[in-house]
Target: histidine kinase
Amino acid sequence: MEEREQAAPAWARRWWARRDTAADWALAAMVYPWSALMIAVAPAGPFGGTALQASGSMTRVLSMAALTFLVPAGVAALVLVRRTRPGWLLAASAVLMLCVGDFGTPGLALFSYAAWQEDRRRLAAWAVGLMGATAVLLGSTSAVVPGAAVTLVLMFQGMPLTVGLWVGTRRQLIANLHERAERLEREQHLLADQAITAERTRIAREMHDVVAHRVSLMVLHAGGLEVSAADERTVAAAGLIRTTGREALAELRGILGVLREEPGEAAPTAPQPVLADLARLIGEWRRAGMPVEWRVSGTPAPLPAQTERTAYRTVQEALTNAGKHAPGGAVRVELEHRPGTLAVTVDNEDPPEGPPAEPPPGSGYGLAGLRERLVLIGGTLTAGPRPGGGWRVRAVLPAPEGAAGGGGGEHVDDGEGANR
Model:
């Protein structure tokens, strides 16, 4: 229904939104001449006719003129507010019927009250009073037989009352259905949120049971090897494994805290890695035996935290893939600061002794997740084999306009030290 309304032309939507107001103005335009005609032609009510006949001729003319123009205008004004104040129209129609014998306006008043008010007892009292008085007035007229009077009452007042009751009941039913639909939609959203929370808790539990336990065992074994080994290189390697495992556990603990969202538990506040942490990352891989060359060109400038974090994750994922699939191969990391963009390129050569017989297991979603990160900030990612052998990962990230300038110099870290 809402889709059809949105697809309708603008003029049709405006008209539909103002249909109630247009109907009220149309009814007011029809009620005005009807009331004026009843006052001018048939001022024969039980009170109005006697009062007018007792007055002088000039007073009678002025009174008739005032009644003919002012009273219908007041009734038409009451028709415009019949949806919010239908009781006023009922009272005015009762006065007109008693004063000038107007038996048509009470029908509109009964319809309006039945359609827009929910007080059925008061409506029944008004209906019995108006319809009974109209029947008595019409029956007392010599020109109308009693049977015809009842027929006129049913046609002019009984039928509008019945239609008004149907309209009011239908309007209440639609409002109840709308309220029920909104309540069901809210309940569905709550159920979906509960399902999401339960699924995230399950994922966190599985990650803790599988990954955290395995990494904890790795850290413990590495610590034991560091204490018991006699070879200095073995001790250094075991220490590096233990340190890396502890950092992985710390990061995993933060991720699990975000997934669980325990009530009353504060979110992890550890700072997220940025470009300034690349030196530490590259230093860790160098200590693990990977030959990494680091090059920075252009003039570095302040970048949004999300851009720096994405650049860091790009280098991290590329180095991880190089360590898995090309162990021992040389790797070159290059950051190019250019006007409006930051380009990150990671090239790795083929391993000197061919690919490992059994590479470490991987999820297969590293580059896919990295590409999603870049798409979120408006960047691009390309990954694939190089023409001369090896593999290349290149990401182009947007930078604030004018935040970085090109040609500001070049810095190369050939592995002798870590530079920030």
The first strand starts at residue 292 and ends at 299. Confidence is low (pLDDT under 50) at residues 43-56, 402-409, 416-420. The first helix runs from residue 2 to 7. The CA atoms of residues 90 and 109 lie 5 Å apart.
